Amino acid sequence: MKASALAAELTKTRRLRTGLMTLALAVAVTGLTIASAATSPAFSSPQDSWSALLAGIGLAFPVCSPLLLAVLASRQVDIEHQSNGWIFAQTSRVTPGALCRLKLLTTGPGVGLATITASLLVLAFGLLAGDGGAPPWGLWVGYTLCVLAVNLVVLGLHILLAARIQNQLVGLGIGVLGTLFGVFASAMPAAIAHITPWGYYSLVAVAEYQGEELMLQRPAVVSIAALAALAALGFTAVTTFFDHKEA
Amino acid sequence: MQALRAEFIKLKRSLSWTVVFLLPLVMVLSGAVNTLMAGEQPDDGWHTMWLRSAVFYGLFPLAVGIGILASLVWRSEHQGGNWNALMSGPTSTWRIVAAKAGSLSLLTAGMQILLLSSVAAVGKLVFGLPGMPPPDYLGITALIAVACLPVAVLQSGLSMIFRSFAVPIAVAFTGAGLAVVLLLAELPGLVWVFPYALIGRTTQLGTGTFADSGHISAVDVLTVLGASGLLTVVLLFGSVAWLERKDF
């Protein structure tokens, strides 16, 4: 992979205000988590304080991520459709598939940073304003890593969608449907949640209400690992197909 | 009127109907599937059906839906040399802005009618609820359509300013997120003057969720109408002023 192509892709992210989008993701998740936890009676109870924050962040990610990731991917890819960038890149020996991989490589770290920042900000809020003692470190780290993996999978999927379908309405519409599926998947059986990448937001949740009670649980690590491996294979296969497809 | 007709001709092939039809339908179906998955029935009949469909819809999908429609309404103008053609034509700035906002408001009103129709259809066909939804919901539907006017004008203005299809939608989503924080914090003063919070608050009327008492008073209705009217006029003048000053 040429360093110059990577540098060009990074320049595009600056021009497209990708940093602002990822900042919006971090702020939205943090704001929604703090607002929902602060208004929840469980947050003021010492034994449920951390659970309330984990439940809040477990809802905030599926609400905020799908659409903002769709916007991010859509903007990053749309410029190639607008300015015939696919052919222009090919003349510089950067194939469409390689261009998609570069786009994931340049936007992925921003999404990762936003995910970790949101998690750290919520953790800091819990330490400063909560009354629940030491945080459940293992669950917190596990949740952050798992939701990061889901976010990257969803981002990759949207990059491929945006590259294949020029109409941005489709990608953003799928983002909206993904949000709904991500939010409502927690009420569905786990088998159904496994069907789409957005359902995995509910599988990584480590705190959820069972009736009136807040229960802690381990994230479905095996499912997330399988999703990540399958997504990596799928992304490689589809981008390789793009490389061999006539422009 | 001619400008408005022209807008609908432009929208014919824009797939805007998919948003108008699918978004309310998907929201109602999501609420119904959720209820079925939990092995429950709508305990309070039509009230539960409405509550499960409309409240979440008003929190962010509705604002995002209006954002998508606004981007579709303005997309054709940002392509090729259409912007110059629009600006150099005989149609005044005021009529352009009003026609765009008007077409968007009509599409948005259509979404609300479809929401109520979907609630009625799913309530009857899936849950076998007796009778039809109470007439109150027709009034609330009309109020939601009115409360959507400021957001429609604002989103139309944003899609006019930004060439990007996706950025105004991201703004709508962020605005809706901020509105959820205001609604959770129960700040009535700010809720009525922030367009995205206004639609969220209006979809909650009569549901007893968030800060809603569960009863709709004349004050509630007049506040929605007053706030919507005032915000719509201010945002419409703002959009016209921006287009008058910035386009040269």
In short:
The complex is a heterodimer of chains A (247) and B (248). With 247 residues, chain A is mainly α.
Could you characterize what this model shows?
The complex is a heterodimer of chains A (247) and B (248). Chain A is 76% helix and 3% strand. In chain A, 52% of the residues are buried. Chain A has one domain (3-244). The model of chain A has no long low-confidence stretch (mean pLDDT 91). With 247 residues, chain A is mainly alpha-helical. Chain A has helices at 3-15, 18-38, 49-82, 85-91, 96-129, 137-164, 168-184, 190-193, 200-204, 221-244, and strands at residues 207-210, 213-216. Chain B is an all-alpha fold and 248 residues long. Chain B has one domain (2-246). Helices cover 76% and strands 0% of the residues of chain B. Chain B is built from eleven helices and no strands. In chain B, helix 2 (16-37) runs antiparallel to helix 4 (61-75). The two termini of chain B are 26 Å apart. The chains are: A mainly alpha (247), B mainly alpha (248). Chain A binds chain B through residues 21, 24, 28, 31-32, 35-36, 38-39, 63-64, 67-68, 70-71, 74-75, 78, 167-169, 172-173, 176-177, 179-180, 183-184, 187-189, and chain B through 15, 18-19, 22-23, 26-27, 30, 33-34, 37-38, 56, 60-61, 64-65, 68, 71-72, 164-167, 169-170, 173-174, 177-178, 180-181, 184-185.
